[in-house]
Amino acid sequence: MPLNHLIRDGDNPDITEERQKATFSTEELAIEIYGEPLAQRRREISAEVLKRPELLDDCPHVFLDRTTKVENSMKKTVAVMEKGSEICDFTSREELGHLVCEVFGDDGFPLSIHFVMFLPAIQGQADDEQAEQWIPRAMRLEFIGTYAQTELGHGTNLRALETTATYDKRTQEFILHTPTVSAYKWWPGNLGKTANYVIANAQLYIDGKSHGPHNFLVQIRDENTHQPMPGITVGDIGPKFGLNTNDNGFLRFDHVRIPRRNMLMRHSKVSADGVYSPPVHPKLSYGAMIFVRATMIRMLAHVVLKAATIAIRYSCVRRQGEIKTGNGEVKILEYQTQQHRLFTALARGFAYRLVGDEVKNLYEKIAEEVKHGNVEQLADLHALLSGMKSIVSYDSGKAIEQCRMACGGHGYSHASGIPEMYAVEIAGCTYEGENMVMLQQQARYLVKGIHRLAHGEELSTMLQYLANTSNNKFRIGESGVDLENALILALEYIARSTIERVTARLDSLQNKGLSAENAWNENAVELTRASRTHTRLWIARCFRDRVHRIENHAIRSALTDILELFLTYEVVDMSQYLYQGGYANSDQVAQVKDAMYKLLEKIRPNAVSYVDAYEVSDTELRSVLGRRDGNVYDNLLKWAKSNPLNRTEVLPAVEKHLMPMMLAAKSKL
Ligand SMILES: CCCCCCCCCC/C=C\CCCCCC(=O)SCCNC(=O)CCNC(=O)[C@H](O)C(C)(C)COP(=O)(O)OP(=O)(O)OC[C@H]1O[C@@H](n2cnc3c(N)ncnc32)[C@H](O)[C@@H]1OP(=O)(O)O
Ligand SMILES: Cc1cc2nc3c(=O)[nH]c(=O)nc-3n(C[C@H](O)[C@H](O)[C@H](O)COP(=O)(O)OP(=O)(O)OC[C@H]3O[C@@H](n4cnc5c(N)ncnc54)[C@H](O)[C@@H]3O)c2cc1C
Question: How many degrees, rounded to 5, is the angle at CA 253 between CA 251 and CA 256?
Answer without folding.
Answer: 140
